[in-house]
Amino acid sequence: MDINIVFKIAAVGILVSVMNQVLSRAGRDEQAMLTTLAGLVVVLYWIIQYISDLFSEVQTLFRL
Predict the structure, then answer these.
(1) Contact criterion met (CB below 8 Å) for 46 and 13
(2) For residues 45 and 47, what is the distance between their CA atoms, to the nearest angstrom?
(3) How far apart are CA 54 and CA 64, in angstroms?
(4) Which residues 6+ apart lie within 8 Å of 13 measured at CB?
(5) Going by C-beta distance under 8 Å and a sequence separation of 6 or more, which residues neighbour residue 2?
(6) How many Cβ atoms from other residues are within 10 Å of residue 32's Cβ?
(7) Is the pTM of this model over 0.85?
(8) Around Cβ 25, how many Cβ atoms within 10 Å?
């Protein structure tokens, strides 16, 4: 696993949390929730290949 993906996920988490706080304080709770959801989708898009590799390794390990 590449360490850069961890730093990317951390950067997105920090950015989303700051945007969430700013939007919540401005009274735009719906946009804050959508920002959080968009950050989650972006991170899941980045790690979907790693999850797929993990499942195939587990499948190979237990020979299912």
Answers:
(1) no
(2) 6
(3) 14
(4) 39, 43
(5) none
(6) 19
(7) no
(8) 9
Residues 6 or more apart whose Cβ sits within 8 Å of residue 60: none
User: What is the structure's pLDDT at 44?
Assistant: 95
Per-residue pLDDT of the chain (64 residues; tens, 9 = 90+): 679 999 999 999 999 999 999 999 999 999 999 999 999 999 999 999 899 999 999 999 998 6
**Tokens 């989650």 map to which residue?**
40
Structure tokens at 54: 């993990």
Length of the chain: 64
pLDDT at 1: 67
